[in-house]
Amino acid sequence: MLKNSKVTLGLPHSDPVTESVADLLTLAEPLDYKSSRMSIGLSPGAQPAMGKGLLPSPGDEEGRPAWNSKLQYILAQVGFSVGLGNVWRFPYLCQKNGGGAYLVPYFILLILIGIPLFFLELAVGQRIRRGSIGVWNYVYPQLGGIGVSSLMVCGFVGLYYNVIIGWSIFYFFQSFQYPLPWAECPIRVVNGSQAIIEPECEKSSATTYFWYRQTLNITSTIEDSGGLNWKMTLSLFAAWLIVCLAVIKGIQSSGKVTDRDIYTYSTYVFIDCVVRALNANGLTAVVYQTGMTKHLFLQL
């Protein structure tokens, strides 16, 4: 048929409409042959079965939530990375395992293993856009157990850190008192009139006594189980409630909160830098010099 030939369409109850073939081709939707897939032995409209050698492409999950911007993604990664392990756990392990000697194998393993695995995880997640179990099933179905193992590890880590978060919540509310309950040893009244300092606290310290007797409520002997520590129970419940709300909202909620509160986050970073600078200003004291020496220098 010639390019500019005319086609007459006979429509009922209307006049004949004449259009050119070029006009009809112009109105046709273009086909994306790169994204097209060939289904063999399937009826029109049928979807290929899962788990039978036909793996879906990453773009099939159109409902998968995604980040709205690169800044949102970067801030969310910083929020997930900077936590108790950096602020509290790492200095403790560094001081306990030789100070500066601990940093030598740490940086070696960080460069050779830690950073490559971190970027590999980010790249795989951005390419396949699935969870830990779905990623390994996509790579090879028989490797799905690796994703299940990583999920179990995350669960155990969540149990471990949520207890610490519960302690932090308890101390947060206790810090509104004046004077602080762990600033001085409690006073015990003997014989109805005589006031003495708690002997156990006097032998150790006020902070140690408050930690073991007030916070954890540890009994004197292992045979005595004690009652329910309702203060820590409520604190732990509040910590898990925060986790459940974050999981229900999904990953987009964390990104939206981070994007909305970018100035708040920047203010927090600024305050943290100021506090660290003030602490560094006191390094001239002997006690701070001793602490930094044990923390950073080699202990053979």
UniProtKB/TrEMBL annotation:
Keywords: Glycoprotein, Membrane, Metal-binding, Sodium, Symport, Transmembrane, Transmembrane helix, Transport
Transmembrane residue ranges: 73-91, 103-124, 145-173, 232-251
InterPro entries named in the record: Na/ntran_symport, Neutral_aa_SLC6, SNS_sf
Localization per Swiss-Prot or TrEMBL: Membrane
Gene Ontology molecular function, alphabetical: metal ion binding; symporter activity
GO cellular component: plasma membrane; synaptic vesicle
Signal peptide: none
BP GO annotations: alanine transport; glycine transport; L-leucine transport; proline transport; sodium ion transmembrane transport
A Pfam cross-reference name: SNF
Membrane topology: Multi-pass membrane protein
Principal cellular location given in the protein's record: membrane
Residues that coordinate or bind Na(+): 79, 82, 86
Similarity section: Belongs to the sodium:neurotransmitter symporter (SNF) (TC 2.A.22) family.
Annotated protein name in UniProt: Transporter
Originating organism: Hucho hucho (huchen)
